[in-house]
Amino acid sequence: MTEEDFGARSASLNLGGGTRPRVLVARAVFPDILEKLQAVADVEYTQDDRIDPPEVLRARLRDKHGAFITNSERIDATLLDACPDLRVISTMTVGVDHIDLDACAVRGVIVTHAPDVLTETTADFGFALLLAAARQIGDAERYLRAGKWHKWSYDLFAGSDVHGTTLGIVGMGRIGQAIARRAAFGFGMKVLYHNRKPLPSTVEHECRAAYRGLDDLLHESDHVLLALPYSPTARHLIGEREIAAMRQGATLINVARGGVVDEEALVRALHRGHLGAVGLDVFEGEPHVNPALLAAPRVVLTPHIASSSIPTRRAMVKLAVDNLIAVLQGRPPLTPFNA
Ligand code: DGY
Q1: Of all helices (H) and strands (E), which one includes residue 33?
Q2: Alpha carbon 270 to chain centroid, angstroms
Q3: CA 87, CA 205: separation in Å to the nearest integer?
Q4: In the structure, what pLDDT confidence band is assigned to residue 11 with cuts at 50, 70 and 90?
Q5: Which ligand 1 atom sits closest to the C-alpha of 70?
Q6: Which residues are catalytic?
Q7: pTM higher than the cut 0.85
Q8: In whole angstroms, what is the distance from residue 238 CA to residue 196 CA?
Q9: 253, 129 Cβ separation under 8 angstroms
Q10: Is the pLDDT of residue 5 over 80?
């Protein structure tokens, strides 16, 4: 977004006469990072970290010019229509599937997000989940804590190898590429990837990754890791047919969005022993988790924490605050989504 494009869009944020912009910070975040925002705007904020129902969020946003949100706040046309002064929505996440981008665009509302700052941390976690699932670390730890460990045995929690095997990455954006580098250089893995379109050969070379159609990738990979952005077309991209196309005993890891996987089909595949292990950080109706998943064997489940290291979460909040301040002060945001 150039200064000129941005000037046209932000003209309506001319508050006039020394009026300070009004901002809602919808959730609890690191309070010290908010001080910067409080210096330039009137900020409604509470450390009481609750997720507001839609009508409460609408009421809190009604007179605001800017919103700081997380992926728990749904931004749709109904909300936007109730908030005529709203000019900028800044989400501290990289994913924007909780925001109706078309509804924002037609109302001239700028949407910013937080890419890059979480890439490496999320890739670390994707790899941790792969290792935990393939090597059955969750089940093994629960077994030990339950006092069930009485002897060393040759096949106790004997899982799958990760090093030297084939990893198929679906979604080769920044996070997918960072995972590919870990796999290729750290674990000597062969890396395949599937994307809407192949990456430039320089990037493929840098990640030591080869493009495959989805079916070929599923068929050739020992471990499949999902790192694609969510869109309605990605819903249940991995369903009954795709799971059946995976290798017997393969691992499936999801650090994308829960809706990408048909969880019922996943549970069935685990029970019939087709999948060796599953690692999920994201869920279809999160924070609700399908009880069938909780009861399924060989599954590692974590509460959407892939980007959750302190330095990274601080960087995400800081970037979201800087985006808000830029727009409120009439400058282009650092990381716009709907430029
Ligand atoms: C993101 O930033 O999109 C992470 O998934 C956290 O929601």
Answers
A1: helix 31-38
A2: 24
A3: 42
A4: very low
A5: 7
A6: 257, 286, 304
A7: yes
A8: 15
A9: yes
A10: no
214 is written with which tokens? 């989805």
Among 333, 286, 321, residue whose Cα is nearest residue 97: 286
| Residue 101: count of CB within 10 angstroms of its CB | 16
Residue range 25-40: mean pLDDT, rounded: 97
255-278 pLDDT per residue, tens? 999 999 999 999 999 999 999 999
* 204-227: average pLDDT: 98
CA angle 51, 56, 62 (to 5 degrees): 120
User: What is the model's pLDDT at position 16?
Assistant: 63
The token pair that represents 215 in the structure block: 């079916």
For residue 257, the ligand 1 atom closest to its alpha carbon is 5
Token readout for 68 is 């700081």
Centre of ligand 1 to C-alpha 229, Å, is 10
As given in the structure block, the two tokens for residue 226 are 């999902």
Ligand 1 pocket test target in 71, 129, 286 with most atoms within 8 Å of CB: 71
* Fold exhibited by the domain 119-301: Rossmann fold (3.40.50)
Among left, alpha and beta (phi > 0; psi -120 to 50; other), residue 185 is alpha
- List, by residue range, all CATH 3.40.50.720 domains of the chain: 3-117+311-328, 119-301
pLDDT at residue 6 tops 50: no
Percent share of the chain, pLDDT over 70: 95
What one-character-per-residue DSSP string does 200-266 give?
PHHHHHHHTEEE--HHHHHHH-SEEEE-PPP-GGGTTSB-HHHHHHSPTTEEEEE-S-GGGB-HHHH
Q: Output the residue whose Cα is nearest ligand 1's atom 1.
A: 93
Q: What are phi and psi of 164, to 5 degrees?
A: 75, 0
CATH for the stretch 3-117+311-328: 3.40.50.720
pLDDT for the residue 1: 47
Task: Please say if the pLDDT value at position 2 is more than 70.
Answer: no
